[in-house]
Specification:
Layout (H helix, E strand, L loop, with lengths): L1 H5 L3 H5 L8 E3 L8 E4 L2 E4 H7 L4 E3 L7 H16 L4 H13 L3 H18 L8 H4 L3
Parallel strand pairs: 1-4
Antiparallel strand pairs: 2-3
């Protein structure tokens, strides 16, 4: 029962009034999918737009945890540098497409070690941490 109460539903979202200009990122599998009704697809993304979000970033397919983590890290870094949402997402996706398996493993290894050694999620370890300092 507690798990059901923790779920965010379309009905919950439709009762919200999001701040104008709000950007919502649904970083999980198939978040753009929904039920097909007479008025089209009704799902989380559409409900968020109806509730006032100016943009919703979501997926139409299943995504791996590790690759999604890297995509979101790169996406947010580019947004923070001033890129618009569409360009940031495009560049983040493109950067992952060209990674070799070895590069991907090295990147993920850096993140995993960072989480363990610094107790933080989402921040690669710096040089002093890597050298034991």
């Amino acid at each position: 029962k507690e798990a059901q109460e923790a779920l965010l539903t379309v009905d919950d979202i439709l009762g919200m009034q999001l701040q104008h200009g709000c950007v919502v990122v649904l970083s999980a599998c198939c978040t753009a999918l929904g039920a097909v009704k007479g008025e089209g697809v009704v799902g989380l993304a559409r409900a968020l737009l109806f509730a006032g979000a100016s943009s919703v970033v979501c997926t139409l397919w299943e995504v791996g945890d590790e690759s999604q983590m890297l995509l979101m890290q790169r996406f947010y870094a580019l947004v923070c540098k001033g890129l618009d949402l569409s360009s940031a997402l495009h560049h983040a996706q493109s950067s992952l497409r060209v990674l070799t398996a070895s590069q991907l493993n090295k990147t993920l290894d850096t993140w995993v070690h960072s989480d363990v050694t610094r107790g933080k999620v989402g921040a690669p370890k710096d040089k002093s941490t890597a050298e034991g300092g």
